[in-house]
């Protein structure tokens, strides 16, 4: 094989490789947006030649609508060609699940019921002024105990789920029942909560 044949072979290989090379999705998008901008500029120039102001305004609105449509089509083609470029801002991964007990709150019912029960028990002790003191002490102790019993009865569990979103942000979500999530589960935020995806 002589040098001329080798050079010709390399040139043909380069031409065929160049012919096969397709523009990237970003290059096509850049070309489409440039073309849309040029067309919009030409349309605005034509609109400025309208004599009637109403017709001129309508022409400009139509030109803008066509420009917006061309940009949307270019963006749609870019996203279709490069699906990874479309980030799912609502998508994420569970990075932590903690179960905590939420302390219940006592109410007047617990205090009153405990106070009455304590007073009745205190009234059974002693006699005279000691009976009065025992009744008062029983009422106070019963009120405190009734409040604590009610708090304990109203104690609930909560599941706190921490999510790392694909867009880099984090979110915390609270559930009254076990959502069944574990670290690494793929989730999606919807209606201020997360669900499996």
What can you see in these coordinates?
The protein is an alpha+beta fold and 197 residues long. It folds into three domains: 20-85; 91-101 and 156-196; 105-153, no CATH class. It has five helices and five strands; from the N terminus they run αααβααββββ. It has helices spanning 3-20, 25-48, 53-81, 108-123, 129-153, and strands at 91-102, 156-165, 170-175, 186-190, 193-196. A hairpin with a 4-residue loop joins strand 2 (156-165) and strand 3. Helix 2 (25-48) runs antiparallel to helix 3 (53-81) and helix 4 (108-123) runs antiparallel to helix 5. It is elongated, with a radius of gyration of 38 Å. It is found in: Membrane.
Quick rundown:
This protein has 197 residues and is α+β, with helices and mostly antiparallel strands. It is built from five helices and five strands; from the N terminus they run αααβααββββ. It folds into three domains: 20-85; 91-101 and 156-196; 105-153, no CATH class.
Please describe the structure with a list of short key phrases separated by commas or semicolons.
single chain, 197 residues, alpha+beta, 3 domains, five-stranded antiparallel beta sheet, 5 helices, 5 strands, 19% strand, elongated
**Cα gyration radius (Å):** 38 Å
Adjacency order of strands in the biggest sheet: 3-2-1-4-5
Distance between the termini: 61 Å
Compressed to H and E, one letter per element, the order equals: HHHEHHEEEE
The structural class is alpha+beta
Count of strand segments:
5
Number of domains: 3
**Average pLDDT level:** 78
Name the overall outline.
elongated
Low-confidence runs? 15-19
The total of helices stands at 5
Largest sheet features: 5 strands, antiparallel
Helix content: 55-70%
Beta-sheet strand percentage? Answer: 15-25%
Domain Glycine zipper 2TM: 110-150
Signal peptide: 1-21
Main location: membrane
Protein name: Glycine zipper 2TM domain-containing protein
């Amino acid at each position: 094989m002589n040098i001329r044949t080798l050079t010709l072979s390399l040139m043909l290989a380069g031409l065929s490789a160049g012919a096969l090379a397709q523009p990237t999705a970003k290059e096509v998008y850049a070309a489409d947006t440039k073309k849309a901008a040029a067309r919009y500029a030409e349309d605005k120039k034509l609109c400025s030649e309208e004599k009637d102001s109403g017709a001129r305004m309508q022409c400009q609105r139509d030109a803008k609508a066509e420009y917006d449509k061309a940009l949307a089509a270019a963006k749609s083609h870019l996203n279709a060609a490069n699906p990874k470029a479309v980030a799912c801002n609502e998508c994420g991964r569970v990075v932590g699940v903690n179960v905590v007990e939420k302390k219940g709150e006592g109410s007047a019912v617990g205090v009153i019921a405990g106070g009455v029960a304590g007073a009745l028990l205190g009234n059974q002790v002693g006699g005279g002024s000691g009976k009065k003191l025992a009744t008062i002490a029983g009422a106070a102790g019963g009120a405190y105990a009734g409040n604590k019993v009610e708090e304990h009865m109203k104690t609930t569990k909560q599941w706190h789920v921490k999510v790392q979103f694909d867009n880099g942000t984090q979110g915390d979500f609270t559930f009254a029942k076990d959502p069944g999530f574990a670290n690494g589960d793929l989730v999606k935020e919807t209606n201020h909560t997360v669900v499996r995806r």
